[in-house]
Amino acid sequence: MSSWTLISGGTVIDGTGSAAVQDCSVLVKDDTIEAVGTDVGDETVPRGDEIVRIDATGRTVMPGLIDAHCHTSFGEARTQEEQDLYTSHELRTLRSAWNVTKVLRAGVTGISDPGGSYFIGVGIREGIAEGLVQGPRMTTAGRFLSTFNGISDWYPTSVGCPESSIGKVVNTADEMVTEVRHQVKNGVDLIKIGDSPLGDYEAFSGDEIKAMSDAAHRLNKRITMHARGSNNIDSAVAAELDWIMHGNSMSDDTIERLADSQIPLAPALLLLGNLGEYGAAAGVPAGMRSAYSRLLDRTAECLNKAREAGVPIITGTDTGFAATPYGDWHARELELLMRYAGMSALEAIKAATHDCAVVLGDDNDVGSLAAGKGADIIVVDGDPLADIRALQDKARISTVMLRGEVQVFDDEVLSQRRPYDRAQTICPSEITYDVVFNGGSAIQPDPRDFDTNGDQELLGQLDELAHAASQEAS
User: Fold this and answer.
1) Where in the chain is the domain with CATH 2.30.40.10?
2) pLDDT at 456 over 70
3) Is the Cβ–Cβ distance between 251 and 469 less than 8 Å?
């Protein structure tokens, strides 16, 4: 016998961009949507088959959200060293398994993990598929492919890029192709290229990116890239990558080429948005907060032009940092797309469901509510079209259905945090002679309280990128 679920009487947003339909019902058979409509009921359910009924009157029924940029093995790191060096890979795996359940609880029924430690993402994906771990549908990369100048080779040459880090250094085209083959052998769905951190130069040549793209596609895998600047985006488009992340600074010509290619762009605004707008709560210095906010403001000019030019924009959050913890802020990306890319609420929902389903692969026919689609559905108390922030409050997501099965969560248990081991701090400040004997303060002020004590190099780079974005957009 089949199992059935009837979600009745709600306002249905189907994810395709069509207008919401009131007093509408969704009928699910096993793991697939059987029918959607105002006249749908249980008449077609065979006698004797089990049926679960969910009354969605006064609520919104819509596809589960999809996050194209969720790093399952980042461990809510506060420092790069925590992300790369601390915590054994066995414990990282267990904590990552814990954290993906929090992602699902937030109404995110699909994620793509664009890189992280070891092949933890592969293990988590398989654990979810086998029912060992409660988590969303998932595709995953392995470690970022980086050069000495890319996004994940942070440490001095004497330290190098440890095997525990999120990146793998490859400095020649042959090394790059070999690493693509190695990662595919170990079960990844996609390859992640880590170009320059802020897009102010090119860490890879166009030919190198094309070599990696061709290698991935020959092996029937997808490939994406961290690309913040115009030249990075141009190389990604020329290499025919499957989607691109960020795009903070794009010339009009670059936007035109990106639109012509129809390669989706995942801006991943959340990390910058949280650091800029909410960073004071975590001690982020004012100068840094201002730099992040200015970069977002200038990115908005590019994103609005990209949307108007027809670039497909999808949602990704950079979840996994301390600034973007698991299960807390995924839906805020929709709010930020409305603010910085000029989307309507309906367009933002489409970007987070129907359009973003591309990152889950051809085997996952989800992202919209239509007959024959996979039954990944959420029921929301409230109207996201009137207030998109309704999706950010987990208490208002009354039902999460994944593959046709209503999920059960223990919210009290999931409220606990499972970060990676924190960095080893010997002393929080300097114990100097003057402090001890000449009347200095025994407790030094936290340097994060002072604008001038932030990372001046990073501040300068952020300002340069924001200026470039502003110049190219104008």
Assistant:
1) 1-63+362-416
2) no
3) no
pLDDT of 453 strictly over 50: no
Position 445 pLDDT exceeds 50: no
Spatial neighbors of 167 by CB under 8 A, at least 6 apart, are: 115, 143, 144, 145, 146, 150, 151, 152, 153, 161, 194
Distance of CA 322 to the CA centre of its chain: 14
CB 237 within 8 A of CB 290: no
The CA-based angle 117-118-123, given to 5 degrees, is: 100
Question: What CATH number is given for 65-330 in this structure?
Answer: 3.20.20.140
CA distances from 109 to 2, 31, 188, 195 (A): 22, 13, 19, 29
* Pairwise CA distance, residues 448 & 107, whole Å: 35
pLDDT of 449 > 50? The answer is: no
28 in Cβ contact with 34 (< 8 Å): yes
* pLDDT tens-digit series, residues 245-281: 999 999 999 999 999 999 999 999 999 999 999 999 9
Token digits for 180? 């693509």
Distance CA 396, CA 419 (A): 25
pLDDT band at 437 (very low <50, low <70, confident <90, very high): confident
Q: Where in the chain is the domain with CATH 3.20.20.140?
A: 65-330
**Contact assessment for residue 68 and residue 364, using Cβ atoms and an 8 Å cutoff:** no
Res 435: pLDDT: 78
Which fold, 1-63+362-416?
Urease, subunit C; domain 1 (2.30.40)
**Token digits for 203?**
């860490």
Which amino acid is located at 119 in the chain? F
Task: Provide DSSP, 390-448.
Answer: GGG-GGGEEEEEETTEE----HHHHTS--PPPPP--S-SS---HHHHHSS--SSPPPGG
